[in-house]
Every structure is written in C-alpha cells, then in structure tokens.
Amino acid sequence: RKFKYPVLKISNLCPWVCAHECSSSLGSDHMENIDGYLMKYTNLVTGWQYRFFVLNNEAGLLEYFVNEQSRTLKPRGMLPLAGAVISPSDEDSHTFTVNAISGEQYKLRATDAKERQHWVSRLQICTQHHTEAMGKSNPPPKSRSYSMASQGSGSSPMSVRRPSQNPNSLFGWSQAHKGSSLYSSKRSLLPDHLMDAREMMTQAQGQHRDLIQSIEGLPAAPGLSSLDQDLLMLKATSMATMNCLNECLHILHLQQVHSPSMTGPTIEWLEPKLPDILKNGSSSLGSFATGEGPLEGSCLELSSPESCSFSGEQEDIDAEDELEDSFTDKEEDLAALGMDLTRVVLPTFILEKRSLLEMYADFMSHPDLFVAIADGGSPEDRMVRFVEYYLTSFHEGRKGAIAKKPYNPIIGETFHCLTGERRPPAASEDPYQVRFVAEQVSHHPPVSGFYAECQERQMCVNTHVWTKSKFMGMSIGVSMIGDGCLYLLEHDEEYTFQLPCAYARSILTVPWVELGGKVNIGCAKSGYSAIITFQTKPFYGGKLHKVTAEVKHNPTNAVVCRVQGEWNGVLEFSYTSGETRVVDVTKLPVTRKLVRPTEKQGPTESRRLWQHVTESLRQKDINKATEHKRILEERQRTEERHRAETETAWRTRYFDREGEGWVYHKPLWKNSALKS
Q1: Are 298 and 631 in contact (CB under 8 A)?
Q2: Where does the record place Low complexity bias (predicted)?
Q3: Backbone angles phi, psi at 335, to 5 degrees
C-alpha cells in the first residue's frame, strides 16, 4: 500500500517495473482469475485474430478460446506459466509476449496501454507464484555451479552431463506429473544441451528475483530508497536481460523442433563468423542453405566476364516503353515458410523482392511535393517545402511493419523509372515528369548513386550513398554515409542534405525498422537551414518513429518553423505567426512508377538482373533463389578478379567521380549552362 503512489509514477517509465512492484506488494493473496478478449498473432498470412483468454491462477495456465461462448469447451490452446517470461513489447504500448518454459510463445495485443498493463501485471504475479512454488518443491542441486570461476578447468557445463542432472528434478516434474501431456510433451522436445541452458536460466531467474527483493527490502532511510533512479534502472536492466536470454533460448528450441534429425549441440548460425548482412558490398541471400553446382536450365545474362564488358555504355530508354508499375507483391515473412533456420545466418532470411536501387526510387513516390519546392514564393517558403518533402519521403520505402532487406546491388547494376504526369493534366495544372536513374558505382565500399530531375520545374537532385552496416546486439544499424544536393535552377539555389541511419530492431523475433540520427539541410545562398532529428525509441517508454525539425534563418538566428510528429504518421508544422498545419503521411497520394517491362530492360537493370531470384522467392523456393543469387555474386567476383589481372579499371555508366562523391554525368544544371 505504501508503494501505491510511486508505482503509478514508475509505470509511465516502464510497465514491467510496475508489474514487479505490484507483484511484490500485493502478494499471491491478490491473485485473481481474469478473462477477456485479446488479439493473438498467428502468422503473417492469418495475421492478428481476436481470441478469448482466461488466466487460470490456480492451475497456473493461460488458456484461450475462439470466443467467450466456447469457453465451456476445450481450450484452443494453453501455456503453463511456471517459469514463463512475460515481456511487454517495445514495438508499441499495446503488444506483449508470453514465453513459456517449453519454448512456445504467444504474441498478444491489448486494446490500449492500460489493458496491457493489467494483463502483464496479473500474468507476472501468477508466473512468479508458480515459479517459486516449483523451485521450492524441487530446488536445483547445490553442487551445480555455473560461475565464471568454475569454468576455468576447461570443461564447459554445456559439454558434460552429470548423473545429478535430472530434468524432472530441475523443473519440478515429478512422477506425479507424467500423466499430464501439458508438460511432458513439451519437455521431451528439449535436447540435453538445451536442458542445461534452461537450468542456468532458472538459476539466473532466481538471482534476478533475489536482486529485486534486495532492492525492494531496503529500509527507509534518508538518501536511500528502493525508488532511487539508479536502482530502478538496475531492476529494469536485469529484467530486460532475462527477457533477452529467454527469447534466445526460445529461438534455439524452435530450431531444434524444426530439425529433429540434427544430432549434437552444433548450430551453424551460432558459429563465430561474420554474417553476410554485415559484410559491406556483399549481398543478403548468400547465407541461405546452398546446393552444389549451378541450376539446370538457369539462364542468366552474365554468362562470362567478357559478356559484362558493358562499362561506360549507356542504354537508350524510350519513354513510350515505360508502363505503370504492376509490381504489387505483398512481402511475406519467409521465416514462416518452413525454412530450415539452422542453415540461415540471421537475419538474412527476411528479404524484400527488389533491389536497393529500386527502393531509393521510392523517394519520388510523392512527386507533387518534390516539384512544389520550386513553386515556393520566398527562400523561407522553399526551405520549409523541402523539409516537408524530405520528411514525407521515407514512409513509402517501407512496404510493411516487418523489416525487409532489399537485394544488395551488383556493381554496374542500374534502375530507371519515370513518375509524375504521364498524360496532360487539367488545364489549370502544369504538366511535369520526374525521371529517376540509379547506379551501383562501387563494390568495395558499396556506393550507390541516384539522380532525379524535373525539366519542367528546372530542378534536380543528385545523391551518393555508402551503406555501412554494423551489428548491435539485437539490432543491426545501417549508416547512410554520403551527401545529396537539390538544385533549384530558376532560383539559383542549392540545398545540401544527408540521410538518416536505419535500424532493424528485434532481429531474433519480428524485425521492425526505425530511423535515427540528426540531419542538416542548408542553403548557402539564402542563409536558411534546417536540423531534423530522427529519434530512436528509448529503452524505457517513449514513442516510436518520432521526428522533430527546426527551420532557422542563420543571419538573424530566428526560428521560422518547427515540426514534430512521426515520419510514418502525422506531422505538425508550427510557424512563428501562430499558424499550424498537419500532414498525415499515410493519406498522401502515392504516384506509381512507370517502368519498362523486364523484356525491354538491359541485362544489368535491376528487375531483369534479379528476375530469377525474385521469381523463386515468389514461388517460395528458397534453395532455387539462393542458387540464382550465388551465380550472380560469383560472376561479380570473377569479373572483379578478371579486371585486377588485366589491370582494367571499372568504368561507370551514368555517374562520374568528383572528389569524394559521385555526380550524374549529364545533370540538368550542366545542360542549362550549355543552352544559355
């Protein structure tokens, strides 16, 4: 009772800290059976479905039914809560997971944050009660120790089984429990080495509880309190660590279930080698299980190094051949297609069916906002318009909530498209077209150049990007190193900018993407600049995809506009005049690209180059997609060796090296200068 008010304050920071406060102060006498509807995630095809859940505190079970009317029937499913871990998700404030000791997991979503907190609190109280009861009835043998000191003999606890390691005694599964298939059927799926890991997890969970109890048992004294910020942080970090370890063990269990014929504790994707996704310049599918030798009947255009001596040659593109894009594939979670996860270097089993070069073209999905920059009546107005275009240009590049990785482009690969008004618009509007071209100009490091222009508005943008990846525990960070420049020729203005970093989070469960970092936009001629901050979600609380921006007139140091909101949601623009304007990114009209059919594309254009990989992924044939991609990558390496042996320099098609950057070979500003 005395912790009631502080607990409410803590819940704003971290719901599961609140849950532990509640569980300690309320005790088992406040355990109650609760029920209600929650959304349950089944798979990517079925998605989220409403199910009626019942928390049975006496039995320590979480049961669910199709609906409330069917609760008198046998449950559709149930999870034992003894030894389970309840984890509020960092995706949003509604989702949480229940990870059973057997490795089975429920991903659930409440209607709001308050309801999630109620379920999480009650589930954690029930879990703690039954876990402690299980530990008291069958405590782990005292002779077992997994301290770092005990491992100094060179004998790992994972590699030796001792007679005392009886799984039944470890988990409280005595002979009396053998009649229940609830535990025995799940436990039998755990191999010996996973039972060792589970025992260590049980000990770690006990130490975690001891830590929590020690902190909460601190006597009330001046300058010392269980609600001290550092102690709360320590509690939260301990819980986060336990959740992380439990999710890892869950992945290992699923791997074992999907590969029952596998013997021994060797798991390929846990070997100490660098995943392909982290090797700059390498592509993402090479980590799949690959077969030996080429595919029969495979017909790829790059049949020999000599056939690829296309460097420097440019393709003639007929605008009449470009048709409205019909590429409407819904991205699927390939992990749900029955793949052998032991043969995959995580997280490369989730692929987007297109090249990174094509993904860059999504920056032109709202061409009306792009061309509107040049229509601004003042330098201030044009800078604000550019900021609006910039903030709304990232949403369309993500095809869904789950993070997908596009193909890493092959050196010399290109992508062309057209967007804007194909036919004459209404008489009150001026027609325009935006042409986009991208090229992979370097393999080591992997550098892409892309350029877009609108001749009718006398504006163009040139950008070069080096994608540099690094592993960050449960995340992968991709730094977008490089610069871009927007040219407004009618106003003789140049706007320099960069791109934010991208992060793939929760790579061992359901990956999702967020942007992070600070971006500077500047126009030297007008003196206006903007600072855009993409804020990553903090570990405790906070919103996803938050972004803020500030437009300033440098000579006077006056802020003329502020922006706040989400880059994939609602953005609010506030002006010094007191006026506000709201832009909902999700409701902006998307202009589809005009792309030539594959048969009319050149052999190194993205869709033709990757067509066999893409088609195999559509057919869910992972091995075939792997082999097609392996052929592309091997030929890229062969060509690179051939150029090194013959001392032949690589020649790009559309971009020229200028200093540290790459510039389109026929930019609009050069053409305009020649005409004048």
Answers
A1: yes
A2: 143-159
A3: -65, -20
How are beta strands 475-488 and 501-505 bridged, if at all? antiparallel
CA distances (Å), origin 95, targets 243, 558, 600: 15, 42, 47
CB 80 within 8 A of CB 183: yes
Report how far residue 392's alpha carbon sits from residue 8's, in angstroms, rounded to the nearest whole number.
Answer: 37
For 227, the 3-state DSSP assignment is: coil
Residue 153 neighbours by CB distance under 10 Å: 7
Residue 539 scores a pLDDT above 70: no
Q: DSSP per residue over 379-403, as a string?
A: HHHHHHHHHHHHHHSSGGG--SSS-
Q: How far apart are CA 604 and CA 610, in angstroms?
A: 9
User: Which residues are CB-neighbours of 292 under 8 A, at least 6 positions away?
Assistant: none
pLDDT in tens, 385-439: 999 999 999 988 765 556 677 888 999 999 999 987 654 555 446 688 999 999 9
Report the 10 Å Cβ neighbour count for 32.
10
Percent of the chain residues past pLDDT 90, beyond the cut: 35
Tell me if 341 sits within 8 A of 287, measured CB to CB.
no
Alpha carbon separation from 358 to 210, 354, 398, 440 (Å, rounded)? 53, 7, 12, 11
Indicate if the pLDDT at residue 189 is higher than 80: no
HEC per residue, 612-671: HHHHHHHCCCHHHHHHHHHHHHHHHHHHHHHHHHHCCCCCCCCEEEECCEEEECCCHHHH
HSE of 164 in the Cβ direction (CA atoms, 13 Å)?
10
Q: Which of 54, 20, 12, 39 is nearest to 95 (CA)?
A: 39
**Looking at this protein, which amino acid is placed at residue 487?**
Y
Give the Cα separation of 85 and 83 in Å (integer). Answer: 7
In this predicted structure, what is the pLDDT of residue 360? Answer: 93
What are 438's two structure tokens?
A: 């991208």
**To which H or E segment does residue 611 belong?**
helix 611-618
Residue 476 has, within 13 A of its CA and on its CB side, a CA count of 22
Judged on CB neighbours under 10 Å (0-12, 13-18, 19+), 113 is: middle
Which residues lie below 8 Å from residue 524, measured CB to CB, with a gap of 6+? 494
**Which residues neighbour 201 within 8 Å (Cβ) at sequence distance 6 or greater?**
242, 245, 246, 249
Strands (DSSP E) found in 489-545 = 493-497, 501-505, 512-522, 528-535
Distance CA 416, CA 316 (A): 11
